[in-house]
Design goal:
Blueprint: E1 25-27, H1 30-37, E2 43-47, E3 50-56, E4 61-65, E5 70-78, E6 81-91, E7 100-101, E8 108-111, E9 115-125, E10 132-134, E11 139-144, E12 147-149, E13 155-156, E14 161-163
Length: about 170
């Protein structure tokens, strides 16, 4: 089970369980992954592919990368709860070559008071803004056994993680 803040019961959630013991479903392309990850239906999703694009994740999901699976693009959490992501390589859309990068997408963005999320055994890189940003009153988030890095020497913006912003102070372990 989850460790850290994701394991703490609060509101109507008894810790983070994601898709629980629901029978796993398999995604082998981005369209299938998007369809399975949206909404609040409880699911365990096994990703067995290298996919690209933007993924919006809904509540009550477990997404597990199988066999080195990866997503090249961005993952967004907005006002969702009870999500587990494990064993996944996520590569953002970093600014190319010598271009000075001043803004862009996070590789993984947690916002909108999302809560009870667990990111475990993740390889997260090349966000053109940040690699993993947890903002806008998001709380009860655990990030464990994760690697954050950049594959190139871009000029300017290379911020790996943002936790909280302005008056927002989430609990992160």
């Amino acid at each position: 089970g989850p460790i850290g803040w994701a394991s703490v019961p609060d509101l109507d959630i008894d810790g983070t369980t994601g898709g629980g013991d629901t029978e796993p479903v398999e995604a082998t392309d981005m369209n299938t992954l998007k369809a399975l990850a949206q909404g609040a239906v409880t699911r365990v999703i096994h990703l067995r592919a290298h996919v690209a694009g933007r993924l919006d994740v809904g509540s009550n999901k477990t997404i597990i990368g199988i066999g080195g699976s990866s997503l090249h693009g961005t993952i967004h959490f907005d006002g969702v709860s009870n999500v587990i992501m494990r064993n996944l390589v996520v590569v953002g859309d970093n600014c190319p070559g010598d271009v000075e990068c001043r803004s862009g997408q996070d590789t993984i963005n947690v916002a909108g008071a999302s809560h009870h999320l667990w990111f475990d055994h993740m390889d997260i890189s090349d966000g053109s803004d940040g690699n993993l940003d947890i903002t806008q009153a998001s709380d009860y988030v655990t990030v464990s056994w994760a690697k954050f890095w950049y594959s190139s020497r871009v000029r300017g913006h290379r911020f790996s993680n943002l936790i909280a912003a302005e008056e927002n102070v989430p609990s992160v372990v």
